[in-house]
Structure formats: C-alpha cells, structure tokens
C-alpha cells in the first residue's frame, strides 16, 4: 500500500485518489464520520479527485496504535470507491 | 466580513470557525454539494473546528465574479451554524 507515509516520526500523511470531486467529497464525509465515532480527528484536505489525510494522536503529540488502525480502516473505505 | 482574503490577485482564501469537528464536517459537505451544483470546485481543508477554503476559476487561472458569488453563498451557509 502506497498511500501512507510516516513524517518526522510524528504523523501519518496519506493521499487518496478519486475519479472526480463527488467521490472525494463522499469519502471525506465517510472518514469524518469514522473520526467522530472513534473520537480521533485527522486533518482532511479535499480537492478535485483527491483527499489528503494528516493524522496523529494529539494527546501524545505523536503516533499511537490508534493512528495505524484508523489508516487501515480508511484504506478499506477507499477500496469501495471507483479507481481514479 | 473578515473571512475572505484575496491572495496574489489570484485566489480567495477564507477560514470559517466552528464549535467542533461535527459542524466543520457538515459545513464541508454542504459547500461541497454547492460546488457540485455550480460546477465550481474549491479546495477545502477541514480540521477540528475549522474549514479553510481556497477558491479560484481554473479556466482563467484567476478570480471571476463566480468566485465572489460562491464566497457570499458560503458565508450565508456558515451563518446557519452555531458560533464557535
């Protein structure tokens, strides 16, 4: 999986591709809902055909197992969308 | 209105504040829907309590009346949310 990169041993940075704005918007909403459920909130950058996610655990100002679990769940959600 | 700034005579940059992640997410979805209706797609940056919008008209690589009309519509949508 090529989506995620660990940056500065501090956060995950991943970019998902989509075929259009609509899919990127729906994906943003879906992972926003996941963030609310898990009470773990990434930064989300939405533009045409792309959603970039930056994620870390604010309480420890770094990476925790939770971040990697969330990343894997986002990957699975992304698989439900049409390839870009 | 303090939300919007014209940057480099090229694009609008505006940041809206919210009381939580949920409202910021719902607002992102609402203006994403507006973008689809108008077929005019900004870049949207969502984080806890905040949505930043960058918007310009790609066809002319600069600002058009459409951008200012969209900005005003976003302002009106934002008024429906609870103050941050």
Which helices and strands occur, and which strands form pairs?
Two copies of one chain form a homodimer.
Chain A: E1 4-7, E2 11-17, H1 21-38, E3 43-47, E4 50-55, H2 65-79
Antiparallel strand pairs in A: 1-2, 2-4, 3-4
Helix pairs in contact in A: 1-2
How do the strands of the widest beta sheet of chain A line up side by side? 1-2-4-3
List low-pLDDT spans of chain A: none
CATH fold annotation of chain A:
Gyrase A, domain 2
Number of domains of chain A: 1
Profile the largest sheet of chain A: 4 strands, antiparallel
The percent range for helix content of chain A is: 25-40%
Mean pLDDT reading of chain A: 96
Largest interface: A-B, 16 and 16 residues
Task: Give the quaternary arrangement of the chains.
Answer: homodimer
Residues in β-strands, percent of chain A: 25-35%
Q: State Rg of chain A.
A: 12 Å
Please provide the ordered H/E string of secondary-structure elements of chain A. EEHEEH
Count of β-strands of chain A: 4
Given the helix and strand composition of chain A, which structural class is it?
alpha+beta
Distance, first to last CA of chain A:
16 Å
The CATH architecture designation of chain A is 2-Layer Sandwich
Approximate shape of chain A:
globular
Classified in CATH, the superfamily of chain A is: Transcriptional coactivator/pterin dehydratase
Q: Count of helices of chain A?
A: 2
Q: In CATH's first tier, which class of chain A applies?
A: Alpha Beta
């Amino acid at each position: 999986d090529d989506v995620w990169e660990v940056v500065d041993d501090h956060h995950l940075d991943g970019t998902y591709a989509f075929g259009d704005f609509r899919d990127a918007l729906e994906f943003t909403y879906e992972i926003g809902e996941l963030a609310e459920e898990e009470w773990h909130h990434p930064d989300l950058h939405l533009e045409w055909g792309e959603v970039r996610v930056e994620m870390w655990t604010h309480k420890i100002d770094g990476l925790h197992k939770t971040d990697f679990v969330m990343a894997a769940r986002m990957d699975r959600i992304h698989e439900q969308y049409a390839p870009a």
